[in-house]
Amino acid sequence: QKMEVDTLISARWIVPIVPADTYLENSCLVIKDEKILDILTQSEAKNKYKALNSFDLGKDHVLIPGMINMHSHSPMTLLRGLADDVELMDWLLHFMWPHEGKWMSPDFVRVGSSIALNEMLKSGVTCFNDMYFFPDVTAKAIDESGMRGVVGAIAIQFPSAWASNTDEYFEKGLKVLKEWKEHDRVHVVFAPHATYTVDDAGLTRMRDLAEQYDSRVHIHLHETSKEVSDHKNQYGGRSPIQRLSDLGLLNNRLIAVHMTQLTDEDIKAIAAAGATVVHCPESNLKLGSGICPVSKLVSAGINVCLGTDGAASNDDLDLLGEMRTASYVDKFKVDDPALSAFEVLRFGTINGAKALGLDHKIGSLEIGKRADVVAVKLTARPIYNPILTLVYNGTNRVEYSWVDGKLLLDQGKPTLTDEIKLYHEVEEWGEKISSWDKKRKGPEYEMIEDKDWVLACGELPWRWCGIGRIWP
Q1: Is residue 245 classed as helix, strand or coil in its secondary structure?
Q2: Do the Cβ atoms of 91 and 287 come closer than 8 Å?
């Protein structure tokens, strides 16, 4: 008698990630009670199982684990395309921060997070690691979407619409953490914005809370050469990494994002600490920030993941595209050994799961793990190796996604999202933002210079205290 199961997914190829650099042909993945029950040949599956739902994907699809976007600012999707072709600090000072000061609110975060989630789902991401204000709103959006996600309890020592002072950031962050502590798909980590926006007391408090709640710490680090040089000038020659080490934050809880400016000593310290590095090549390229030396990090045994960053600096949330870019920019550095396509695929799957402490549940297609599965249609022909075609061919299409065995994307269409309603809300926000931006750039609104920002905000060259006050 055949065993009853929830779902059978038959595909031309399955790339389980574990074991390494392996793909299965003409196989079937079996789902029961939200988990992967079995992986076997299609003929064996027909004889062994009876399913409530069966998907025979034919000869074009490859099954992979749901991908994990390890760095995003999902609400900033509403600011996509607002400022292009400028370097990081110009982008922040003259465009992002003024608009965030004007518009940041629970509804801005709700709509921005929702459109970001929808876009990530349609590009094969089933789990993401977010950092932004009003994380409670993003957490709710994740829950309603059916996806898996991690929100950061952000801390920054300057006021925002989310919190007026450091104590309120911590108070609200802890409330969010406790509220979602028992949720199976939504998790909360601590997220100090950066070493230049959080002081020693705030960073130390983050360290203690991360230990107390067994949580990760998600931070921007060594993103630009200016960040590092200014930090050394302010902290007696110490780099941001050295300062974090002195404060006890350079450890296996740390998720360090960008890391484009690294010395050999930095790499040794990161490896010894067991910290994770998140590579965001497209955002770093667009903003001219530099490129993370990922081959050196991998050679040193460091866990490397992939992130898109926010859509305002990318301009998409497509992790498959990020893999392709990551593999190409790595090969441009001819002095380092080139990463394989499979290694880059690991960046977007099991390495992200490991960074979040979720590799026992997700990140690979293994029996007993959660059924977070993506089916990608490979459009190129011929196909000699589906892993190579998946990573290097930019025209592949994600057509199906499951999280905990629940179908969230069916032939490219989300099953739980009212896209027409969502797109209408996004358009409304776009019209408001565009109208204000045109007024802001008029003759009566003078753009400030960097020196004025410093004078207005004190010692630190990048300070958020002036948002909404320096600009009319």
Answers
A1: helix
A2: yes
